[in-house]
Specification:
Elements (H helix, E strand, L loop, with lengths): L1 H21 L37 H16 L4 H8 L6 H4 L2 H7 L11 H4 L6 H13 L1 H11 L3 H12 L8 E2 H11 L3 H16 L9 E2 L12 H7 L15 H14 L9 E5 L14 E2 H6 L3 E2 L12 E5 L8 E4 L1 H9 L3 H14 L18 H13 L13 H13 L10 H8 L5 H5 L3
Antiparallel strand pairs: 1-2, 3-5, 3-7, 4-6, 6-7
Helix pairs in contact: 1-3, 2-3, 2-10, 7-9, 7-16, 8-13, 9-13, 9-16, 10-11, 11-12, 12-13, 15-16, 17-19
The structure holds calcium ion.
Amino acid sequence: MARLAVERSHVLAAAALAGVLASCAAGPQTPPVTGPVTPPVVQQPPAETGPISYKPSGNKEMDAWRTDFSARALAAGHDRTVVESFLGNISPIGLWLGSEVQAAATGVGDQAEFAKPIWDYLKVPMGNSRVSTGSAKLQELAGLFDSIEATYGVDRQAVAAIWGMETSFGAVIGNFDAPNTLANMAVEGRRRGLAESELLTLMKVVERGDAKREHLISGWAGAMGQTQFMPSTYLAYAVDFDGDGEKDVWNSTADALASAANYLSSSGYAKGQPWGLEVNVPPNFDYSLADGQDRRLETWTAVGVAPVGGGPFETNGADFAELWLPAGAEGPKYLLFHNFSVFKKYNNADSYAFAVGMSGEAFLGKAGPMTPWPTHIQPLTVADIKLLQAGLNSRGYDAGTVDGIAGRRTKTALQGFQKDNGLVADGYPTKAMLSAVTGQGSSSVAAATVD
Ligand code: CA
């Protein structure tokens, strides 16, 4: 059985890689993968002890890493057959060990690139295709969602929204062999510790019989299945919800969605409570209260924050919220509750959590926001945001690393500058704010910074 599994995995891994390698420039270290996949040569049975001998991967650095890592995996007590099935057929993936690494490493440095405003980010999650498919899935799988809600106490639209965000409802789960992807990540080096830890965890998954070796397909960064679990998340939270004995997050929608619900539940999801509520604020509101701090609902009510649709707040017991301005004072404003931070356990970006919350409600026919997005505001380029961050830092407002990403620290720093200069303290980076902070231009905003 073990031998069969190993041989099948060879074929699968080679098939998965064939597509990848075809799109990458074939360098001298890339093994030829052309035409039909040929069965692996049957070698003599491995020795029971001592190091496993491997055929060369085509990359000396990869071979050296494998010799060392294989020995450590065996020393840590991992099953010899599993270790060999993971490492026997690894080969360089261009994305990790080719010329594309340079492009990936430079990240957001492109001068022409614009920081995506939230309304652009939401175009796919809130698009007609995603929303209509999400609504249809909630209907088709109503029985499954009933069971998942009853078992894990997680609202169906939240699970469905994550399913949509991660893999377009299981349609795009990646075509990489997870062990090979993680091996490439380890050899590439920037995240070696993480990659090795995830590889060892994935060995444990196979050793426990939770998943079959040949099912271990992932995206380019090692996340697996319909709800894109890293091996450590899989080990901790994956469940067998359809009862066939395998935690098959790749091929079983029931297993994948229940696993995601289990993860959300374990992260503290509160069923029936809002992730966020759109609000209005009174004229001359102090926007510096949008500072990331949770406050009691009664505190928000006391300063005039109210549901955008009128009436009292209905939160089913959620009592603490922060005020969040995804597009500044001119755009929609939200109170964010605990469930929003649960979404961020899945992906630690406000925009991601917001898209999960918004699209899930859209699946139920409640498409927000009521306040229009301020699409007339021209987005800053990544280079502009770096200038803004450097300017804030030089004025003593801590914007953190100058990375071109206007995260929470940059917003808070900008709010400090705005407040000290009598400006609307919404922390939203605009051309006018860049001029004001850097002292360039002669706009009235810049003039307002002069005492
Ligand atoms: Ca199952």
